Amino acid sequence: MDAVVTEQLCKRYGATEVLHGIDLRVPAGSLYGFLGPNGAGKTTAIRVLLGLLRASGGRATVLGRDAWRDGPRLRAELSHLPGDIRWYDYLTGKATLAMLDAVRGTNSVTEARRLADVFGLDLGKRVRDFSRGMKQKLGLIQALMHQPKLLVLDEPTASLDPLVRESLNTELRQVVRDGRTVLFSSHSLQEVEALCDWVGILREGRLVEQDRIESLRTRALRRVEITFEDAQPTRPTPDGLHVGRKADSRLEGSWVGSIQPLLDWLAGQRVRDVSITPPDLADLFLAYYSDTEREGAS
Which of 13, 35, 89, 198 is the most buried (most CB within 10 A)? Predict the structure, then answer.
């Protein structure tokens, strides 16, 4: 069963449509990256999924229930880290987590302490004395500590240093190994590519791509640089090799798709040196956005 399903999901504010018929599928037990630039509509979509906003059209189902109608029950089974989290400054970190634990009716003290050790957060300090990064760590602990079925994280690595980010990645991978689900919103492709196994791309309120990361990599572009022993290759270049520049015995270009045909062609050449980069998802997404813009203008 999918943990999250939307069908032609729309959200309007007056005459302004923010979400345009989104069909989102988040498989249960997956780490799903919800990617898009700031202002793409990610936070609005998340608020609809949490039952905090009512959709203007379409349907949203979370953990098998209607996101709006069953919102209160759903919020007991998931957790959310908003992009701009606010705290009671006069409470300590420990008191903040104890309050949230009591509201949820859970007993997560032991797990909260473990996570505080993992993220290096002193829970004895008052929140007013926390730095921005410390407040983000507190938000992550409250989201993780009761081990919800679904974690919805909006820009969770904001203000975190690289070591804490890696600790968070380890925790999120463990969540998925336990059979639970993470919906991870970000504007950083590098972050999503390193962590997630599924990705959905939102652009101007439209879901323009949704697939497994590995599947997208098969469509991504590789940079190719070849230096031949001869001035020119002895056989015509294969169809998949898009030549950008030729100079004497050097060729620079790009390749998309399975690399085996390129290797077979190279095996028949007198090659002095060759460089083939890993698939670059950034180029794929930038090219996709450019195509979308051209279609919209035509």
Answer: 35
Q: Are residues 132 and 180 in the same domain?
A: yes
pLDDT band at 296 (very low <50, low <70, confident <90, very high): very low
Greater model confidence, 229 or 37: 229
Same structural domain, 127 and 261:
no
Q: Is the domain of 201 the same as that of 139?
A: yes
Q: Do 259 and 123 fall into the same domain? A: no
Q: Which two tokens stand for residue 112?
A: 């909260």
Neighbouring C-beta atoms of residue 51, cutoff 10 Å: 21
Helix H or strand E encompassing 22:
strand 16-22
Contacts of 293 (CB under 8 A, 6+ apart): none
Higher pLDDT, 114 or 243: 114
Tell me whether residue 293 is in a domain. no
Least confident window among 55-69, 81-95, 223-237, 258-272:
223-237
Residue 295 lies in a domain: no
Question: Domains in the chain: how many in total?
Answer: 2
d(CA 196, CA 256): 22
Residues spanned by the domain of 157: 2-211
In whole angstroms, what is the distance from residue 141 CA to residue 115 CA?
6
- In three-state secondary structure terms, 155 is coil
Name the amino acid, one letter, at 44: T
Which pLDDT value is given to residue 292?
A: 46
What is the SS3 assignment for 140?
A: helix
Considering the domain architecture, whether residues 148 and 43 belong to the same structural domain is answered as yes
Neighbours of 198 (CB within 10 A): 22
Residue 87 CA, distance from chain mean position: 25
Confidence band (pLDDT; 50, 70, 90) for 111? very high
295 confidence band (pLDDT: 50, 70, 90) = very low
Among the candidates 191, 211, 231, a domain finishes at 211
